Amino acid sequence: MSNLPSEPEFEQAYNELVSSLEHSSLFEQKPEYRIALKVVSIPERIIQFRVVWEDDAGNLQVNRGYRVQFNSALGPYKGGLRLHKSVNLSILKFLGFEQIFKNALTGLNMGGGKGGADFDPKGKSDAEIRRFCVAFMRELSKHIGADTDVPAGDIGVSGREIGWMFGTYRKERNKFEGVLTGKGLNWGGSLIRPEATGYGLVYYVGHMLEHYGAGSWAGKRVAISGSGNVAQYAALKCIELGATVVSMSDSQGALVVEGEGSFTPEDVNTIAALKVKRQSLTAFDHKGKFKYLPGARPWLHVGKVDIALPSATQNEVSKEEAEGLIAAGCKFVAEGSNMGCTQEAIDLFEAHRKEHKGEAVWYAPGKAANCGGVAVSGLEMAQNSQRLSWTSEEVDEKLKGIMKNAFFDGLNTAKKYVTAPEGELPSLVAGSNIAGFVKVAEAMQEQGDWWAKL
Which residues in the chain come in under a pLDDT of 50? Predict the structure, then answer.
């Protein structure tokens, strides 16, 4: 790849997968899979386009729009649309690459993709955001469809934006089909979809707790970063199950519990209302209940915690912060965000797991721990195909089953391909990477996307 410009986020995601494969027996047992790795690491196609829209003053504005259609061996491309000023091809390739294997771990028929634009919704009026969404979808609609590519929301794209985009697609293509997920309940959306990533994260960690012999969520102190959709519903589910939530954050700073207090459902709902208005946590009048730390992430300020759930954005736990979490007694780290930990932090967690065995910190990667969101997107696609709606209870039960399968798929794959001494916890990052990769590689081989002379 030396002839290509540097893509640090994508290279990090690629190297994490390669490290897991190289430090397992997979290539010893199946050396031909090295060829599959070469093929799967290059997107099937990348679409880049300009988005021209008009601001409230009548001035022309232009942004870059993207869709990375990375792999369709298991089904239509599936992955979110991100509207944020940081969006570039490296970030979207990293997210799309992760999405391939995350979707594979759900057990549903979904390929991997990601898209978005370098449009910043902050500071824009509702009318400007709507005009941008219409202009964006007019271009993107040429490349997606219910059996081709089914985007969803991501950072900067809530149900409101999905509605504007879906309406534009319907008018442009003269089709009413399940082309987007996260839709309104009256026009094809699924119950539990907004909650799914946060709920699924908690369900996944529940299996970690049980396997570790650490009991239930009751009484656990939980540090959460972020205050968006994932963090909100993870916090609410933790509280429902008896845990104490001691932190939330946003890009401006962190709120941390003082003393023995906890976030309550009312606190979380107040924060959610602020975020709908695109306001910072500084607007939350908590009456001194929490300590606000401007410009900080919560990890080094939460005191003793049992569980850490990074749920904001990529690379939000550094090596130093990982050391702080371990020193604070943290035993479980599971990513609600995509690639929430730096590679140095992951290496530290994995070294601690090997050294301390049954007393170690146990790390779960986002491609497994946060796959609940895309899983319910897949369930929404299934409901759209059948022209029916399932109840909240039906969707929630299916979500629980998918997260259980994702956990045990990673756990058992690690046991199969990664040699470990007695008493050592299996590597969930290695097991999840290998399990997802093997599913995709096998499908690609059977469809003739790669082959090898043996």
Answer: 1
